[in-house]
Amino acid sequence: MRNNEELYWPIMPRLQERVDILILGAGWTSTFLIPLLEREGYTYAATTTDGRNGTIPFKFDPGSDDPEPFELLPPARTALIVFPLKGHGEASQFLMLYRNTRHSDGLPHFIQLGVTSIWTAETWQDETSPYDKENPRAIAEDELMAHSSASVLSLAGLYGGARQPRDWLTRVIKSKGELKAKGALHVVHGEDVARAIVALHRTFTPGKRWLLCDTHVYDWWDLAQDWATQALKDAEKGGASTISPERVEQYNKMLSWVGELMVEEDVRALPRDTSSVGRRLDGRGFWKFMRIWPTQGRIR
Fold first, then answer.
1. What CATH number has the domain spanning 4-164+185-217+279-290?
2. Distance between CA 76 and CA 149 in Å, rounded?
């Protein structure tokens, strides 16, 4: 898989040509999406803020009425909005500028990439569950869907390629108290995100917000024990040059914290039962509706 600095292809279209999918904000997601589009024969174009490597220069400024950046966008059947829209007014401003620069092709379907954090209840949550309507992302998504043919893919934690969950461990857990507070982790692989985008392009669901995860509920305590053990084994096998003594100490502490917490909280075995890890995401709805299922299995 290419690094983020190498993920762009020369894909500038002739502006009069309609593309199947316009990627507004080519970045990590496009490292999985663009190869899939090429394999399946879809036409596409993509934007970056500076137009590097053949992409279209485009940046949405919600405080500007300047339509010029939108003039460069080619007609598209589906426009994927990768960057976040937030709060009241941004989606309406985006749509106004987009609409005012369409001369005859009209508006595409929009797919907005969202986040699963808008579902906050400490129970099972799916795409039909009540969500935080005051969340700035949810506000903008609702506005987008109210005023255009739009659908939202709310994504769990993203991983794949150079973005590996094991690398998150020492960044998000620095104390026993932080580990104690950790419950469930939900993720989705970039390849499955790409497949979901293509599926939604083919079978569009206007006005629908979907919850997208890999159908697993992971226990942070279980992952911490596993990943700390693997990191220490890697260091013993000759990878010590890439793991500092401080990091080794941190992994050893993490193993101790997991054991201590299991005793203190009367957890007899890992992973903990899903009923004890807080919010759980049920992602079956999207995959069932589209008649596809995640392909990447469990995170390691």
1. 3.40.50.720
2. 13
